[in-house]
Design goal:
The structure holds two protein chains of two kinds. Chain A is an alpha/beta fold. In chain A, 48% of the residues lie in helices and 11% in strands. Chain A is built from 19 helices and nine strands. The N and C termini of chain A lie far apart (52 Å). The relative contact order of chain A is 0.13. Chain B is an alpha+beta fold. Chain B folds into four domains: 101 residues, Uridine Diphospho-n-acetylenolpyruvylglucosamine Reductase, domain 2 (2-Layer Sandwich), CATH 3.30.43; 121 residues, Uridine Diphospho-n-acetylenolpyruvylglucosamine Reductase, domain 3; 105 residues, Alpha-Beta Plaits (2-Layer Sandwich); 97 residues, GMP Synthetase, Chain A, domain 3 (2-Layer Sandwich), CATH 3.30.300. Chain B is built from 17 helices and 18 strands. In chain B, helix 10 packs across helix 12. The termini of chain B are close together. Classes of the chains: A alpha/beta, B alpha+beta.
Chain lengths: 336, 484
């Protein structure tokens, strides 16, 4: 089973409380079950009582994890409870026990349109649905030249996160085919960035191109005026999955941004469960709660200018709060 | 009455609770019920580890207001249902376990902070707030609660109030009971009361202190006003190695008797110095006992106090100076001990036998506990450190550890072995002037020693309990009070 690769995580996380304050979902549902400790403990229970493995309530809990990776980042020994949760989901799917509401989302992903490529150049920009809806893709078009656009399909990350690993690999292969001949792949979507940097390797696939988040690719952009006071919301994928990826902050500060600390700390996730990738499809009411939690931590919700490297986060905060949130691409394009 | 899921009364009561809180805030699903059936107490952890069924509540209520707590308690009284308040569930004494089922009131939704009073230096909040979250709020304003225990990330403020918790800076800033200005409490019968607004007065007995440490047996603490402090300009530590434990203890006691104001002192016995400190800090230490202390506040006052403290350590007790780096390492790693894999964990059996006594008695307590553990359980290790110091004495954080091969596989035999260590060690502590606990509380684990400890005063406690909680709904069977 996939969870057998995480026996050490089960062993240690089930006895440890040290990250419970960082459980984004736990902080809005207030339940013990929504913490890494209890999730690990329940999976341990399922290893000795197999009938619990597909318990409906356990499944629901495991599919609403925020997967922010804050626990792993702040753990002294970086035990990978995120990996454990994903492994459990994969085991569940392989056992044919995925719940119907998850299968429905997975089926929609499997039936995604084919990728289409337009434009020319050795640089490809991935214009996924979130990047388009958030405005990041359109803004990128104003900031960059000479790139081809890859759009329309599903890369496989969503299926991977839901536990449909075989099907995810099939989509990934199609995605990589659409990127053939490209020297640099640029993405706004932080989940797709993580997919290309980390997940395809776990699938046994390889991309012969450099992968950049837009914030790295746009490092040379100079705005017409200093960006001034800003609050930057960290991305789960860029910060917690990719070793504090420095480019978003660097790009903003190089353009005169005075980055003010958002909220009360730099440990929590203020991303609306970006790491879960599809929580807005699985339990949208939880995403709303997460958004309200973030809104409540703004210094001045009516005035603060908040920027994110994540189109997903931008969309959710725009949908559920009155915060003034922009993607990095939008902010730069407006300040050219 | 104890409700059962297949009884229609279960649905009747659930309906009433749902009417108060809304459906999403009355938890009955398997995952939530399991999550509230195991805390940080070794027995339930072991029970679950061995595949045994853990005692679960019937309902988990998530109130957001004091009024909702009051309504829940009135419903519980109506049907005589046990109620257990639950904070972070990180208690090590089994105090929050729903051993009779019933209602768990999970307080974490009551997490509002009403802001910092910068004139009086206080903060008022609901008690379900996780301590770290409150600390972050205070930090943003330039202040600190100075309540910085290892469990700060997982425990709620209410949990600390309920069992009289302590943080690493207790020597200067006090235990949680020293930090409280006033409380709001819902009594077992559902009345909402407030204790006096200030903690120093001559206006009758102190109700605040009655509820602090009551572990959910006398009501639910719903709000608190706490003292806060400006972040200090300087905080500096220094560490020493002394030739033996007695010399180190004498030096620490002298530091307290000098009436200098250290923010922390920690002394490790020789066994723990050799093993634990070396392992965690990566420091190669010579033989002896390791002592670290610190001061904080204005830079010039910290320097002045450190100078006098060094005189005590070096000139009077001939400690080997490890310098500020040796002390800073301790401060930087103060929570590292509690992360896996450093922390003890199942399949080991382990327990923290924390107690407190005067300087005149503390070494007697230490040696008596060590002797009964070493003599009665030679397969166990006994280690200890002294981590909270007062003008008159200090706290012993003694621990026993059985490695996996020494722990019976049968859960009942394991529990029996475990309990027999506690019986021997706690009775040794009481016999030598110690108490049954210093900052983890009593809970289920230590309740059976309450009569030994309190003697003829125990009926006074029982009388208070009976008066406040005539139907014995609040956390029955805990803290030595009668069960159902």
């Amino acid at each position: 089973m996939n969870i057998d690769n995480y026996l050490e995580t089960i062993k240690f996380c089930r006895f440890c409380f040290m990250c419970r304050h960082l459980s984004a979902i736990g902080n809005v549902t207030f339940t013990e079950a929504d913490t890494p400790r209890v999730r690990a403990s329940m999976i341990y229970g399922a290893t000795i009582h197999p009938e619990l493995f597909a318990n409906e309530d356990l499944i629901k809990t495991m599919y609403r994890s925020d997967l922010s990776g804050c626990c792993r980042r702040n753990c002294v020994n970086h035990y990978d409870e995120v990996g454990l949760t994903l492994a459990y989901r994969a085991d569940l799917v392989e056992a044919g026990k995925a719940p119907e509401y998850i299968k429905t989302i997975a089926t929609a992903l499997m039936n995604s349109p084919e990728w289409s490529v337009s434009g020319k150049g050795k640089v490809a920009y991935v214009a996924d649905n979130y990047s388009v809806e958030s405005g990041a893709a359109a803004a990128f078009g104003k900031l960059a030249k000479e790139f081809r656009t890859v759009s329309g399909g599903s890369c496989g990350k969503g299926l991977w996160v839901l536990g449909f690993r075989k099907e995810a690999k099939l989509l990934a292969e199609k995605f990589l085919k659409a990127l053939e001949g490209v020297e640099t792949v640029v993405v706004s979507h932080t989940g797709i960035f993580d997919f290309l940097v980390n997940t395809i390797g776990e699938m046994g696939l390889k991309l012969d191109a450099k992968v950049m988040h837009t914030s790295e690719y746009l490092a040379g952009v100079k705005t017409a005026r200093p960006l001034g006071d800003l609050y930057y919301l960290e991305s789960d994928y860029l910060r917690n999955y990719n070793s504090d990826y420095p480019y978003p902050r660097a790009l903003l500060t190089s353009n005169g941004a005075n980055l003010k600390p958002f909220g009360t700390n730099d440990e929590e996730s203020y991303s609306c469960a970006e790491g879960a990738l599809l929580l807005d499809k699985i339990e949208p009411e939880l995403v709303e709660k997460l958004a309200k939690y973030i809104e409540a931590r703004a210094d001045n919700p009516a005035k603060d200018v908040i920027v994110t490297a994540s189109p997903y986060t931008r969309i959710q905060l725009g949908r559920f709060t009155s915060l003034k949130v922009k993607t990095i691409e939008e902010l730069l394009a407006e300040a050219l | 009455m104890l409700v059962k899921e297949n009884n229609y009364m279960y649905e009747m009561i659930r309906t009433e609770l749902t009417d108060v809180l809304g459906e999403q805030y009355v938890g009955v699903n398997d995952a939530d019920l399991f999550g509230h059936s195991v805390d940080y107490y070794w027995i339930p952890e072991m029970w679950h580890d061995r595949g045994m069924e853990t005692p679960k509540p019937d309902f988990i209520c998530h109130p957001s207001t004091t009024a909702e707590v009051a309504k829940i308690l009135r419903i519980a009284n109506q049907y005589k249902i046990p109620v257990v308040p639950w904070g972070g569930g990180s208690g090590s004494q089994g105090g929050a376990l729903p051993v009779y089922g019933g209602i768990v009131i999970d307080m974490k939704r009551m997490n509002k902070c009403y802001g910092v009073d910068k004139e009086s230096l206080t903060v008022r909040c609901q008690t379900g707030i996780i301590a770290k979250h409150l600390e972050w709020i205070c930090n943003k304003e330039g202040y600190s609660t100075m309540h910085l225990p290892a469990s700060i990330s997982c425990a709620t403020i209410g949990g600390f109030l309920a069992h009289r918790g302590t943080g690493v800076l207790s020597t200067k800033y006090g235990k949680i009971e020293d930090m409280v200005m006033s409380l709001e409490v819902v009594t077992p019968t559902g009345e909402i009361i407030r204790t006096l607004p200030v903690p120093r007065h001559a206006s009758g007995p102190d109700l605040t202190m009655l509820f602090l440490g009551s572990e959910g047996t006398l009501g639910v603490i719903t709000e608190v006003t706490l003292k806060i402090h400006p972040q200090p300009e300087a905080r500096e530590f220094r560490a020493y190695i002394f030739k033996d434990f007695h010399t180190a203890m004498s030096a620490g006691a002298e530091l307290m008797r000098s009436r200098l104001q250290p923010c922390a002192i920690r002394l490790y016995d020789e066994t723990e110095t050799k093993t634990h400190v070396r392992k965690v800090f990566g420091m190669e230490l010579e033989q002896g006992a390791y002592l670290v202390f610190g001061f904080d506040g204005r830079r010039d006052i910290v320097d002045c106090q450190m100078r006098y403290a060094r005189e005590i350590m070096e000139e009077k007790y001939h400690g080997q100076d490890l310098g500020s780096k040796g002390g800073d390492l301790w401060w930087e790693n103060k929570y590292k001990f509690f992360y896996p894999p450093y922390m003890f964990h199942i399949p080991q059996a382990f327990g923290t036998l924390d107690t407190v006594a005067t300087f005149a008695n503390i070494e007697k307590v230490y040696y008596a506990m060590k002797k009964v553990v070493n003599d009665g359980f030679p397969q166990a290790r006994f280690i200890g450190h002294f981590s909270h110091w007062y003008e008159w004495g200090c706290m012993l954080y003694a621990r026993f550890i059985f490695e996996e091969e020494a722990v019976p596989k049968d859960p009942r035999e394991a529990a029996a072995l475990y309990n027999s260590v506690w019986d021997a060690a706690i009775r040794a502590a009481i016999a030598n002037g110690g108490v049954i606990n210093e900052h983890h509380g009593v809970g289920l684990k230590l309740g059976r020693y309450m009569k030994d400890l309190y003697g003829t005063a125990m009926p006074v406690l029982e009388g208070i309990k009976k008066q406040l909680d005539p139907n014995n709904i609040m956390n029955p069977g805990k803290m030595g009070f009668k069960g159902i």
